[in-house]
Amino acid sequence: MRFRKTALQTMVLRVHELGLSTCPICKSNELQVARHPVLLHTGGMRHDSNQPKDPDENVIFMVRIECPDCGYSLLFNAERFVKSSEKIFINGLTEEEEAEQERSGAL
């Protein structure tokens, strides 16, 4: 699973709108948005599948911003970077297949 190209473009724009265009540590001008989400598990943790699920248990899909020079990374909630109705993930398609399906209107 990875972020759709359109979602990544939206995220990059949003990061710049928030004023994050340079690395706060090394001042590099080249921050990168990762293609794959970080899954952040919150709440309870089941050690046995027979245990009841903790009602506070959740998985948050995060977008990772990383400086390629020093490795400094930031995590943002991916759902807050795009409209709630926008599909932000794609699974099982190459970027070329995704682009072809977007051109044909299938996505």
User: Helix and strand succession?
Assistant: EHEEEEEH
pLDDT < 50 stretches: none
By helix and strand content, what is the structural category?
alpha+beta
What's the overall average pLDDT, rounded?
Answer: 87
Overall radius of gyration: 17 Å
Shape: globular
Largest pleated sheet? 4 strands, antiparallel
Strand content bin: 15-25%
Count of runs of 4 or more consecutive helical residues:
2
Report the strand count.
6
Write the layout of secondary structure elements.
Layout: E1 2-3, H1 5-17, E2 32-33, E3 38-42, E4 58-66, E5 73-77, E6 89-90, H2 95-104
Antiparallel strand pairs: 1-6, 2-4, 3-4, 4-5
Notes on the structure:
- With 107 residues, the protein is α+β, with helices and mostly antiparallel strands.
- It has a domain at 1-43 and 56-82.
- It is 21% helix and 23% strand.
- It has two helices and six strands; from the N terminus they run βαβββββα.
- The strands form two sheets. Strands 2, 3, 4 and 5 form a four-stranded antiparallel beta sheet that branches.
- Strand 4 and strand 5 (73-77) form a beta hairpin.
- The mean pLDDT is 87.
Question: How would you describe this structure in keywords?
Answer:
two-stranded antiparallel ribbon, 2 helices, 107 residues, alpha+beta
Quick summary of this structure?
With 107 residues, the protein is α+β, with helices and mostly antiparallel strands. Helices cover 21% and strands 23% of the residues.
